[in-house]
Amino acid sequence: MYLFNKNKNSNKKKHFALKGMVLFFMLLCSVTNYANYVLLPMDEVSQKNHLKAYGITYWSLQRQQKVKWLLNYRGGSFLLADTPALQNECKIRGVSFEVLSDAKAEGILNEINSPSQNMEAIVLEKAPKVAVYSPDGKQPWDDAVTMVLTYAEVPYELVYDKEVLSDELIAYDWLHLHHEDFTGQFGKFYKNYRSSKWYIDDKLRKEALAKELGYAKVSQEKLAVAKKIRDFVIGGGFMFAMCSATDSFDIALSAEGVDICESMFDGDPSAPNYQSKINYKRTFAFKNFKLERTLRYEFSDIDMTTKRKEVRKELDYFSLMDFSAKWDPIPTMLCQNHTSLVKGFMGQTTAFDHKLVKSNVLLLGQNKINNEARYIHGIKGKGFFTFYGGHDPEDYQHRVGDPKTELELHPNSPGYRLILNNLLFPAAKKKKQKT
C-alpha cells in the first residue's frame, strides 16, 4: 500500500511538471507572437495620412529609434519598433498603422530580401537637422516645403544670408532653398510688379542687407551665399531646391565675375556679350543654357514654362522613374510613392529642358509629352542635391497673392511626398550606389 501511494504521488508530480512545461511553451509562443513591430503602410488604400506618416518616422528617429524604410513594399512603408508611445502618437496624428508580430515582420523582411523582388529595407538611423533658407516676412504662399514640414510636424530652423555667410550651415544635415533668386534680379518681377509696394519694399530690404554685409550689389552678395551653399554640399551636405531656387542658383555660380544684371536691377549696364563668359563647369545640374536678356519673367531657357503649350492641365502629369531598389537605393528612396504618376504643377521654373541637364545628373521624374525633366538628382563632392520643378504640388498655376494651400485637404499628396522623401534621405545608413 505504501509503495502504491508513493507511485501515485510520483505520477502526480510528473503530471504537474508536464503541465508546467506545456504552459511555459504556450507562454513562450505567445511572447514570440506578441506585437513587437508597427508598420506604417504607405500604399494608396491603407494610409489615411501619408504626409504625417513621415512626421511619425522623424519623431521616432528623434528618440534614437531606428526605422526600416521598406523600399517598394506597399508604397515605401516604414517598419518601427512597437511602443505604447508610438501607437499613441499615430492615433493622435491620424496616421494609419498595423501591429505586427516578430514572425510577421520577419516574413516581410524575408520577402523583401528575396533576389527576385525589386525591394530593399534601408535602415534610417538619425533624424537629420533641417534648415530652410528663407527670409523674414515670408508670405504663406511662398514655400511649399515649410508648409509640409509644419504639417508633418517636422522641426526646422530658418536661416538666411547672414547665417549662411557666417558658416552656420555646418550645424545642419539638410538644407532647403526657399523660392529664391540668386542672380540679383529680384525674381524678374520688375516688368509686372515694379510699382507694387511689396516689390519695392523687398528690393530695398535686399539692397540694405547686401550693404550691411559689405557688398556693393545684391548680385554680389547672393553669389557669395550661393558659393557657401555650394561648399556645404561639397562637404557632405544635402540640398533640396524648388522652383526658381534651382536654375537661379546654377546661373549665379556660372556667372561669377560677370555682370548679368541690367540697370533697373543694379544701377549699371550688364557686361557686354556676357553670354559668352558663362562658365558651365561651375554649375551643379545645367549646361549650355542661354540667359534671358529681356524683362520677361524668366531667367534662361532652362525653364520649360513657355515651351509647354501642348501640355494641357488635365494631361499634365509626370512619371517617376523605376530603379533597382537593391542596386540603386538612393534614387529609389527619392521616388517612393503610392503612384508612379504625379500631378504636374507650375512655377516660375516649372520644369527643366532635358537637353540642358548634365549627363551625370539623374532623371527621377519626367513629363514624356513635352520631354521635360521635373525632378532631378545629383552628387557634388561628398554631398547630394535634388532639384524639383514647380512651386506648390497642390496649386497648379500658382500666382502672387494666391491663398495658402491647406494641406489638411491633401494629406495623401504624391507631389508633397517627394519633398519628404528627400527629408528622410540623409537619415539612411549609407550604402554605396552601384550604378
In short:
The protein is α+β, with helices and mostly antiparallel strands. The protein is built from 13 helices and 15 strands.
Summary keywords:
34% helix; 13 helices; five-stranded antiparallel β-sheet; 435 residues; alpha+beta; ten-stranded mixed β-sheet; single chain; 16% strand; globular; disordered N terminus
Number of helices: 13
| Class from secondary-structure proportions | alpha+beta
Question: What is the CA–CA distance across the termini?
Answer: 84 Å
Element order: H for helix, E for strand? HEHEEHEHEEHEHEHHHEHHEHEEEEEH
What would you call the shape?
A: globular
Please tally the β strands and state the result. 15
Mean pLDDT: 90
- Indicate the low-confidence ranges by residue numbers: 1-6, 22-34
Largest sheet, if any?
Answer: 10 strands, mixed
β content, as a range?
A: 15-25%
User: Portion of residues in helices?
Assistant: 25-40%
* Spatial extent as radius of gyration: 27 Å
Question: How would you characterize this protein structure?
Answer:
This protein is an alpha+beta fold. The chain has 13 helices and 15 strands. Helix 2 runs antiparallel to helix 3 (84-93) and helix 2 (50-62) packs parallel to helix 13. The longest helix is centred in the first third of the chain and has 31 residues, at 2-32. It is globular. Mean pLDDT is 90; it is low at 1-6 and 22-34.
